[in-house]
Amino acid sequence: MAFNIYLLCTEVKMSLAHSLLGLLSYRPATGYELKTAFNKSIHFFWNATLPQIYRTLKQMEEKGWLTVTVEHQDGKPSRKIYHVKDAGQRELRRWLEEIPEIPEHREPMLIKVFFGNQIEPQHLRSHLQRWREYHADLLRRYDEEIRPVIEQSAKLTGAKEDARYWSLTLDFGRQYAKMVIDWCDEILSASGDSKRRGGKR
Length: 201
Description:
The protein is mainly alpha-helical. It has 2 domains: about 1-105, Winged helix-like DNA-binding domain superfamily/Winged helix DNA-binding domain (Arc Repressor Mutant, subunit A, Orthogonal Bundle), CATH 1.10.10.10; about 105-200. Helices cover about 60% and strands about 10% of the residues. It contains 7 helices and 2 strands; from the N terminus they run αααββαααα. The longest helix is centred in the C-terminal third of the chain and has 37 residues, at about 120-155.
């Protein structure tokens, strides 16, 4: 729908259903369109496969959160379009107002750094360089791909005020990626200086 960010967290109280309710609150959509919206927006901090989306939509319909209309197409399969009902809007509002849990932070890369003295320096440098490259590419995508998506989605949905909040999450992702890049650069630079001075593990 609008933005991509990278967020280090495990599953907490957020559910796929609430993500779908949020996306459908902007406009009705098919399951495939919702998957596309995920890929353009929530993907980096909450992803889902198409089968998961369809299963969840069915459950949401059974709970009375959604209603479905069938759009017939000449020469093509019919489309099921999902709409949020008042009960779904209330559930989304209830979840949004609920105090979030503090996520459990897990980062395998930091474990490798923590025990980095137990491997050859070139292996650790390789890990850090790959991590840096990943976040550098992420930062590039934020600037080149995601900002235009925010503008386009705001026009498409008419949610211009919401776009400001989408941009806030994008800003978090950008700042996090920049922090990782700077951190990697600092370590790589320090290890390079150590090698030039003849330092050893």
